[in-house]
From TrEMBL:
<keyword id="KW-0802">TPR repeat</keyword>
<dbReference type="InterPro" id="IPR011990">
    <property type="entry name" value="TPR-like_helical_dom_sf"/>
</dbReference>
<feature type="repeat" description="TPR">
    <location>
        <begin position="51"/>
        <end position="84"/>
    </location>
</feature>
<dbReference type="InterPro" id="IPR019734">
    <property type="entry name" value="TPR_rpt"/>
</dbReference>
<protein>
    <submittedName>
        <fullName>Tetratricopeptide repeat protein</fullName>
    </submittedName>
</protein>
<dbReference type="Pfam" id="PF14559">
    <property type="entry name" value="TPR_19"/>
</dbReference>
Amino acid sequence: MNRLEQLRQFIHDDPNDPFNHYALALEYAKSDVETAITQFKALMQNYPDYLPAYYQAGNLFESVGNREQAIAVFEKGIALAKQQQQYKTLRELQSVLDELLYD
C-alpha cells in the first residue's frame, strides 16, 4: 500500500479527523498540486477551525501564483489564530503574509 492509499484508508477509518484530511492534502502537494488545492479547500470548508491547514494552503496557493487566494487564506488563518490564542502560529502566519504583501 502506497502512502496515498494509506492516507485514504485513514480517512475511511476515521472520516471526522481533520488531521487525516490535512495529511492527504500535504501528500498530494508533492505530486498533484490541483488535487492538493481541492483537498485543502475541502479541509478548510469542512473543518474551518483546523488551524494548521491555513499556513500550508496559503503557501500552496502562493506557489502556484494565486497571490490573492494566498492572502485571503493567510488572513483567515490569522483571525483564527487570534481567536484560538495560538500566538506562535499567529506570528508564523503574519510573517508569511507580510513577506507576501511587502516583498
